Amino acid sequence: MERSGRMKKTQRLEPDFALILVTLLLLALGLIMVFSASYIIAEETRGDPYFFLRRQALWVALGLMGMYIMSRVQYWQLRKFSLFLLLINFVLLTLVFTGVGTDLGTEARRWIGIGSFTLQPSEFSKLAFVIFTAAFMSSRSVRIQKFWSSSFIPLALAGIAFIFILQQPDLGTALVLVAGTAIIILLAGMPLKQAALLSLAALPPMIYLTFKEEYRMKRLLSFLDPWADPVDTGYQIIQSLYALGPGHIFGVGLGRSRQKLYYLPEPQNDFIFAVIGEELGFVGAVAVLLLFFIFTWRGLKIALMAPDTFGSLLAAGITAMITVQALVNIAVVTGSIPVTGINLPFISAGGSSVFFTLAGVGILLNISRHAQK
Questions:
Q1: Which strand (E) or helix (H) includes residue 209?
Q2: Total domain count, the chain
């Protein structure tokens, strides 16, 4: 890419309509499926069948407001605040391990709680790192051939964030953050030789992290043969496959899933795609994949049409981050990779996720308004 800090001549356009439409369709499907997957459990555990739906609808409304605001903020202004956003990111990640950190009744300490309000800093981290890495790699002073003064800096910072998020523990989000950062650096022109050497250097620590914790090693082994331990490490994969199997072509019908009844863990969150496959069948599952394909296509087109390097890398990074997360979630649910906790963008229940994802979409929409003439 041409490394220029100047804006190329652009024409002011309307925001990308296809991107807006596919985003709204994914959000609408998400609200429907969150209610379908959770209303029975919500009734029995919360005394309100609409508990998860109300909460998700509130976050979707806030996220749409954030998307609109970010679509009106000129994207190149974000370059000025990239380092500040990165500093906020590390402050929030540190606060998770202090008195304001909370586990929300789970085994993972991933949230900051203030009264009834909770925030998941790792979701903010993904967006902050995309903005910082795009700003850093598009700087005129950066020479991509000089690894230690260019690619090494965002990768090292991403590695520190990786360690913070891994301690929560949240391996899935940590991997998505590093993957998104690496994709931006590759698109900025990182030499293939450097990329190959870096990949080889990353293998030993990844192997170490896999076998350091017993539960990670068990998850890996259960992925290879989940039926070897069907009541413990292989339970999640098996229940997910039991949900997908009966769906056939058109599904068992909306709201009629059996696996969501205390069989699937987190049916409204990490494994919501399994409920989609069971209730809406192969057709519903393919429709979700098609919507994410269109989203990726429009995002990459916006990146190609961006008037400057920063806008191009920023659009590509946001698109890659969302797409990689969707692919990882679907791969986990279908038993294609070992289980790691990560939600499905736009669709899974989760306030911080939907808010910061929609904020990223807002940035994409703003970039789309400044296409090359």
A1: helix 192-212
A2: 1
pTM, to two decimals: 0.91
DSSP code, position 356: H
CA distance 132 to 110: 22
Distance between CA atoms of residues 34 and 268, nearest Å: 5
List the Cα angle 7/12/16 in 5-degree steps: 105
Residue 52: closest CA among 42, 60, 43: 42
Residues 227-248 pLDDT 10s: 888 887 788 889 999 999 999 9
Q: How many CA atoms lie within 13 A of 72 on its CB side?
A: 5
Q: Is 29 a member of any domain?
A: yes
pLDDT one-digit tens code per residue, 169-193: 888 899 899 999 999 999 998 888 8
List the beta bridge partners of residue 42: none
Report which DSSP code applies to 335: T
What order of strands is seen across the sheet that includes strand 111-114? Answer: 101-102, 111-114, 117-119
Handedness of CA 329, 174, 37, 346 (dihedral sign): negative
- Phi, psi (5° rounding) for residue 197? -65, -40
CB neighbour list of residue 158: distance below 8 Å, 6 or more residues apart: 129, 133, 177, 178, 181, 182
Residue 209 domain-assigned (yes or no): yes
**Sign of the alpha-carbon torsion through 295, 297, 300, 302:** negative
DSSP 8-state code for residue 265: S
Q: What is the DSSP string of 298-314?
A: HHHHHHHH-SSHHHHHH
C-beta neighbour count of 246 within 10 angstroms: 15
DSSP state at residue 225: -
In a domain, 12, yes or no: no
Residue 214 tokens, joined: 């017993």
Q: For residue 243, give its domain range.
A: 17-368
Give the pLDDT confidence of 95-151 residue by residue, as tens digits.
988 877 777 666 677 888 776 678 899 999 999 999 999 999 998 777 888 888 888
Helix and strand tally (H, E) in the chain?
12, 3
For residue 319, being part of any structural domain is answered with yes
Q: Nearest-CA neighbor of 147 among 185, 203, 200? A: 185
Q: Each residue of 63-98: b (16+ CB within 10 Å) or e?
A: bbebbeebbeeebbebbeebeebbeebbebbeebee
